[in-house]
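## retry 2 of 3
previous attempt timed out at serialization; input unchanged, resubmitting
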Amino acid sequence: MKLAAGLMAAFMTFGAAHAEKLTPERVFADPDLSGPLAKGVKVSPDGAAVTYLRAKADDQRMTDLWIADVKGGPARLLIDARSLAPQEKALSEAEKSRRERQGVQSRGVVDYAWDEQGRFILVPVEGDLFLYRMAGGKVTQLTATAADEIDAKVSPKGGFVSFVRDDNLYVTPAAGGPERALTSGGDELKSWATAEFIAQEEMGRSSGYWWSPDETKIALTHVDQTGVDVVERLDINASGATIVRQRYPRVGRPNAVVELYVADVATGARTKVDLGPETDIYLARVDWARDGKTLYVQRQARDQRRLDLLAVDPATGAAKVILTETSAHWVELTDDFKPLKDGTFLWSSERSGNRHLYHYAAGGKLIGQVTNGDWPVDALEGVDEARGMAIFGASKDAPVERRIYEVSYKTPGEPKALTSAGGWWTASVAKSGKAFAATYQDPKTPPQTAFYKADGSRVRWIEENRLAEGHPYWPYVSRLREPQFGTIKAADGQDLWWTLVTPPGFDPAKTYPVIVQVYGGPAGALVDKAWMKPEDQLYLEAGFILFTLDNRGTPNRSVAFKTAIDRRMGVVEVEDQLAGVAHLKSLPYVDPARIGIMGWSNGGYMTLMTLTAENSPYAAGVAGAPVVDWSLYDTHYTERFMGTLADNASGYANAEVTARLGRLTPDTLMIIHGMADDNVTFDNATKAMAALQAKGTPFEMMTYPGLRHRAGWTQAHRLHRAVTTLDFFKRKLKPTPAP
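## retry succeeded, writing output
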């Protein structure tokens, strides 16, 4: 295998003086080996500055708010989280759940919001709210209560701050003054202005209320969970256990009933929106027209094969369907709907076989298709209405790369790339569309963030994060490995992308064990030209090859690729992963008897399914937080791909793990699970444990008291999990020692 010329030059230049070996202790210590990363990047409404979250050098779990002026000068600390909340506060169960749904791993300043004029920045810290005034740089504490204020927003004109407390919606003047409750009587079962569990976890909707542009009205939800099943789960901590009565909508069971209202901010009077006679639906998205005269609502059918766009009169609540998307499989939810100043709107659809952008008149009449081709749009990032340009992200050239493009929605043509090829780009576009902040990374470049003009020319660095002397990773740079990328064919002829990384000191004349890293589900793809997590480098340092393949069903691909799993999860994904192993076995430096697999969540499920395949080629596997029985998982995610037990009993039976455990080779499995997981609940793990014990099959287990699916994992927890996993694979696969 040949190293890239640049990387080889780096090896020759730095040599043995920079050949330190990464250790688990260093990987999970401060500062972050990947360098100073800009997260939560936003361009100020006037386009004059970029704000972002940055972890403290001495504590990766605490983030501060920073700002960089576009005109130049060093970035500066805007809000020091420790100065506002020197001690960590015990958060409410609702806020813990909200952070879990959003995947928030840090504390301190974990979120923030600009007003649309760029005068204020609203910052929630440890459950209370603070307002930073750009004029004068003063921070004002708005709330100081025992309860948490969540989902805080600045109203569009900057007149108010709004938030949800104890399941009711409040507003307070941004200039100061008493707060006022817009709703009353809300509680855990019947809440106002909140996003229900399923909306947060699976639908990409984290809010339950939306300000009108003139800030005289607020559209808000009423969520009734009384019909949702109570799933009692033990929240097991180091000091004991509590029983949590979680409202968890499992497959085929009732969802929360969600209603939508429009409230008058001055009087509190509410008008109910007509969402139709069927209450067993999903409230997917809510947006205001630019003039505030129309409220747009996306309503998804329970079976997710129909999505309606409703135009609502906010004065009466009357609604009419102006656009409908249907699919024989499922209709994806996106954030691509964009109302424009002239009354038209942009919309995305997969009707062509790939996700593309379309331009519609106000009444729902198609004006024209904006993008087309045998590639999918990933996300509409912003709009420059003055030029009539849509700015979007897409993997147009290959699924393993992502670039930012622009295209005219008035006179559509070939999209223009605004960023370079060869890696992975994400962007935050200014409200005007005339500039953007973007982050680039590739296998040799840790994430770098800069500010760009509309034409893609760089104005200034925000976080250059250059891999050079002084960078935390610099002592290990000579051990940085260049991944290979390639494709193999699935059974139906579609391309499956893979990546393979060899360990430092790799000798192609020797044979090596391989650890396959898998996710394999519709919620994420792993194969991309991005910076490798230092944690993954530990497996290379130990003498393993790392291999990853994105099977059919993973996202950012065509409709045919994604829907190959429709009603048969656990079938084609396993076929594709086994095809990946067949490719590995064809490589002369791979030991076919020493191939392992590991994954988390859906990756844990895939680990169990591949280990129990007929004549499984895997010698060991680590299944983290695995789904074991899809009937134990939630409605919106599972029914999208599998339907219900009533209409797809055989599909659920084929996808269930425990019936296959008789094929598991003894002593080849480790299960890892957090003991307070409210997403993939712990009874998934206990079901597998009980089945293995009943069969007398030895396996290993590691549980983590108090930890959920994503949130709460400290550096110490992550270190322990990595060391535990690494030790398991060392014992089972016997890594090839470095020269």
